[in-house]
Each structure stands twice: as structure tokens, then as C-alpha cells.
Design brief:
The protein has 360 residues and is an alpha/beta fold. The protein has 2 domains: 7-196, Rossmann fold (3-Layer(aba) Sandwich), CATH 3.40.50.620; 199-321, no CATH class. It is built from 13 helices and 11 strands. It has a 6-stranded antiparallel beta sheet with strand order 6-7-9-8-10-11. A 5-stranded parallel beta sheet has the order 3-2-1-4-5, sandwiched between helices. 41% of the residues are buried. Bound molecules: iron/sulfur cluster. Iron/sulfur cluster (SF4) binds at residues 41, 83-85, 88-89, 195, 197-198. Iron/sulfur cluster binds next to α4.
């Protein structure tokens, strides 16, 4: 039989999420922490460890597909990089709400703090998130609860409001004090949960997929996270760094992809994924083969042409190339140049669609 809980808590592994769940659990209520996992965040392998050191019951929830659908066109736009924080919270809370009956739980907990983040944790944004997620009457934010209006859970006496907190603003002093002196946490986690969408290098990788892929799926973002990444316009090439990457590249390969393997020398595998322009020309295939072969030191040291096997749609052909990082297509690693302009275009297109919908 499924275990019964009083509340489900959003649990990223960041300090605020630990404290929010503990504050409610310490009132004698049974709390289950939901740890959402996607190509962008989530460390399910840490759950057992976290559960032990923080004294919480935790479970992983894969949100990859619905999160990716939202990421392609977040109604409230992106933050500093490609992080759609407002819609991310809405998506997670909506999903958590759907899970309530399965655990017999009556309300939700999140570790948001009023005024902590410039955009996603402003008071008006917190209200918007609550409403859009449809959780206005079942969401408790224990860290800032006494700065906010009482929720039905407090009004009914299910939760003792006097034992909730009134933390606000950007400082971390109160949270650190609670972690050290009240809960004596053996490890103090970092403030956030470690989201790749907010990190410049990863954001550059994801931005290229968003920009050039007409309909990316979550596995495209898993691929973007892997090994060395190169782009030449909308041509996308992923090169393994080690054996684990090579195995993962094989797993992620799809019909229509090109899989490159240098013949006669130890080398990484590479995977070319055609996007908008369809199948690659023979010149593009040769160019990509020359680039990936340049990551085989022995092939480079051989000083001559090398053979690269290229598998495409169950056919394997060999091309002969000089390993080189200076090829005609001028592949480059994906950065965030152009991201700002792209986000403005996206936002204008979104407003245009909203106006059109309003006129209909
Ligand atoms: S940082 Fe990442 S996980 Fe956190 S709210 Fe923003 S998008 Fe979501």
C-alpha cells in the first residue's frame, strides 16, 4: 500500500528546500520531499544520502518531458540565461498537485522566500505562481509564511502558524543560523539546487538547441549536455570525451544521425544530428569527420589522411580526411552570443501570438 503523507514538499536539495520541509515535519506532520529530475536539474543519486543527513523522506519525480515542452516557449519568459524560473515553479507545483491524491496528501510546501530573487520571488510573482499553478488554497511557504496571508492549512489549525517563519529578502543569515543551530544539519547545502539553465556554459549549449532545433525533445538536451559540443550554423556535432560519453552517444543516437568513428586509431566517437536542413551534404560529413578525428591524438600524430567510418541509416561508409580543427565550416563551441537578441525575438513573437489570440 502507498504510504500516506500530510504534505508534499518541492525538494531541490538546496538549503531553503531542506528547511521548508523540516519546519513542517517538526510540527509532527508527515512530509514527502519530491525531487524533480530533468536534463537541467536533479541529482537522484543523492537522495539516499540527503534522506539520511536531513532526516527527510524523499522521492525522485521525472519531469523531463513536460518541463522541456514548457522550456520551448515559457509564457513568462526566461531569466538571465535560459532559465524560465517563474514557469518552472508553476510546472513543478502543478505536477506536485496532481500527485497529492496518490500520497493521500493535503497540501504542498515550497521553500520560496519573499524578496529573495529579483524576479521569481517577488511578492506579486509568488502570487502569480500560486494562481497559475492552481494551488492558491493548498500551498504553504513555511520560511516566509508569517509575512504572507494565512493559508487554509493555518486557518484550520492543521499547521501551527506561530511555529512558521517570517524570513524575507536576499540575505541568508537566518537560514544558515537555522541550519546550524536549530537543525544541526551535518552538511549545509548551497543556496540553490544547482540548475544548469542558470550556468553560462550549459546555457550556451541549451540555447543553441532552442535556437536551431524546430522541435527539440528532452533527449536533445541530454545530448547537448554531453562531451564536447560544436556548432556550425545549424549543424550540430557532439564529440565524446571518454568511454562513458561514447557509450551515452550511442544510446542517444537516433535514426538520421551520423555516428563517426576513426579507423585504426583510438578515438572518441562523434554524433552529428541534422536539424532544419535535413540530411548533411558529403562536404559537411567530411568536414565533421576531419574535426572529430583531430580529437584522436594518435590519428593526428600519424601526420596523414585517416579513415573515418560514418554510420548513417544503417549504412556505413568510410571517408578519408586530414584531422583538423581548422575546417571550412569553422565549427565553434556554443556560447551565449546572440542569446539576448534571440530572447527579445521570442518575447515579441509571444506577445504577437497573445494579441492575435485576443483578437479572435
Ligand atoms: S533555477 Fe532552474 S530549477 Fe530553479 S526555478 Fe529556475 S529554472 Fe527552475
Amino acid at each position: 500500500m502507498q504510504m500516506q503523507y500530510d504534505a508534499l514538499a518541492l525538494f531541490s536539495g538546496g538549503l531553503d528546500s531542506v528547511l521548508a520541509a523540516r519546519v513542517v515535519q517538526d510540527q509532527g506532520l508527515r512530509v514527502l520531499g519530491l525531487h524533480f529530475v530533468s536534463p537541467f536539474f536533479g541529482k537522484p543519486d543523492q537522495l539516499e544520502h540527503w534522506s539520511r543527513i536531513y532526516g527527510l523522506e524523499l522521492t525522485a519525480v521525472d519531469i523531463s518531458e513536460r518541463f522541456t515542452r514548457m522550456l520551448l516557449d515559457p509564457p513568462n519568459g526566461y531569466g538571465k540565461l535560459v532559465n524560465p524560473c517563474v514557469d518552472c515553479k508553476i510546472e513543478m507545483l502543478s505536477y506536485a498537485k496532481e500527485l497529492l491524491p496518490a500520497y493521500g496528501a493535503r497540501f504542498l510546501i515550497s521553500g520560496e522566500v519573499v524578496g529573495q530573487r529579483p524576479m521569481s520571488q517577488r511578492r506579486d510573482t509568488l502570487n502569480l505562481i500560486r494562481k497559475r499553478a492552481g494551488v492558491a488554497d493548498m500551498l504553504l511557504r513555511p520560511l516566509s509564511a508569517r509575512k504572507l496571508d494565512p493559508t487554509p492549512m493555518e486557518e484550520s489549525g492543521l499547521v501551527d502558524r506561530s511555529r512558521l517563519l517570517r524570513i524575507g529578502g536576499r540575505g541568508r543569515k537566518e537560514q544558515l543560523e537555522l541550519a546550524r543551530n536549530v537543525y544541526a544539519l551535518p552538511e549545509i547545502p548551497t543556496p540553490g539546487g544547482g540548475c544548469l539553465l542558470t550556468e553560462s556554459e550549459s546555457a550556451g549549449r541549451f540555447y543553441h538547441v532552442l535556437r536551431y532545433h524546430a522541435a527539440p525533445e528532452h533527449t536533445d538536451f541530454q545530448l547537448a549536455n554531453l562531451g564536447r559540443q560544436f556548432w556550425a550554423g545549424s549543424h550540430w556535432l557532439s564529440v565524446g570525451r571518454h568511454q562513458d560519453d561514447n557509450e551515452r552517444l550511442q544510446e542517444l543516437a537516433r535514426v538520421g544521425d551520423y555516428v563517426f568513428d576513426v579507423q585504426g586509431f583510438p578515438s572518441p566517437l562523434a554524433l552529428g544530428r541534422p536539424l532544419r536542413d535535413g540530411a548533411w551534404s558529403p562536404e559537411t560529413v567530411r568536414d565533421a569527420a576531419a574535426l572529430m578525428a583531430s580529437y584522436s591524438p594518435k590519428a593526428v600524430r600519424s601526420g596523414g589522411m585517416v579513415g573515418v567510418a560514418v554510420r548513417h541509416r544503417d549504412q556505413v561508409a568510410e571517408v578519408r580526411v586530414h584531422p583538423s580543427r581548422d575546417t571550412a565550416l569553422a565549427w565553434s563551441e556554443p556560447g551565449t552570443d546572440g542569446l539576448k537578441e534571440w530572447k527579445i525575438e521570442q518575447s515579441e513573437a509571444r506577445s504577437g501570438r497573445a494579441q492575435d489570440a485576443g483578437r479572435e
